[in-house]
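hey can u run this one w/ adenosine-5'-triphosphate bound, need the structure tokens asap thx
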Amino acid sequence: FEPWKDPQAKPYIRIVNVTKTFGDFVAVDNISLDIYQREFFSLLGPSGCGKTTLLRMLAGFERPTSGRIELDGVDMSAVPPYERPVNMMFQSYALFPHMTVEDNIAFGLRQDGVPKAERNKRVEEMLGLVQLSKFGKRKPHQLSGGQRQRVALARSLIKKPKMLLLDEPLGALDKKLREQTQFELMNIQEQVGITFVIVTHDQEEAMTVSSRIAVMNHGRIAQVATPTELYEFPNSRYVAEFIGDVNMFEGRLTEAQPDHVLIHSAEADAYIYVDRSTSAAPGATVWVAVRPEKIDVGLTPPDDPTYNCVTGKVWDIGYLGNLTIYHVRLANGKKVTAAVANRTRLRDRPITWDDQVYFTWMPDSAVVLVS
Ligand code: ATP
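ok here u go:
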């Protein structure tokens, strides 16, 4: 499922040069973005980057200051929210406290005058979809947070929108329940087969659920890509640092070949090889980004001279059960982090505080960034 790679595929949502200003503040700055049918698309970014504003423009609650939004080929500029084939689920869920679960879910259909028999049938379907068949007669206060979230989801889906917009849908849930609910949400999205666009500031959540993610920064899109691409091939320091943990080494490009580059990094006190090309010219300042889990930790230098290597003293160790995190301080003070999987029960000789260790990684395990 990769419609964005198919030049024939027609985008379901087209956001074209959309800007939104509040007074002289630019909340969304000339964004263009295509989203395809059945995508689970995430808008991800720090607080205030404009993601909710963009979502609200898709829903029709805000109008773009300039630019346009097309849905299924139709310009939405003059279409009010209630006439769009779109529904929005809010973080607060906004369930009616005095109504039963069934009545909450049926609310939209009742407003539309759908006959009772049809309504009941659809409510039952929805209760099944969100696995709450036995809970129809309860009131919201008799449900857990996760169950309330599912009622809100059922209510958002009962009118069969072509697209569901979700603003921090799991924000109110605790970590464990959040993780479980992420998978339920993916399952439900697959079953109903519609496009989900979700706003979140939680990068793990976006990575888990999304077909693609737009990482936003100050009203702009920094990068749009699949979770894997964002993590393995971030296009900038901003994205590399926003998605997961990363070691960043500033350096000077000394050699640039089509299949590899060599960087001298005073920060790493080393030459670093990377098996990739770069748009930068020799002499330019660049950054090498290495994820902690791509680094091996040893008490002796690597045998293989093609491995990149920095050396320093262990100043902190974090044992997480599945992983051990080693923080090393290089001679020049630079801190570097490695995350090593705890595959064996006991190490031959556990690395400990103040050990001199060697952090090594292969030339194809890093990326070179020019901004
Ligand atoms: P959060 O995760 O905190 O919700 P966000 O990325 O969703 O952040 P938005 O809610 O889109 O951010 O807001 C983007 C910027 O626009 C913020 O600086 C916000 O203060 C501003 N903003 C949003 N709505 C309005 C408004 N109606 N009037 C004035 N400024 C607004």
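Residues 3-238 form a domain with the Rossmann fold fold (CATH 3.40.50.300). anyway lmk if its weird
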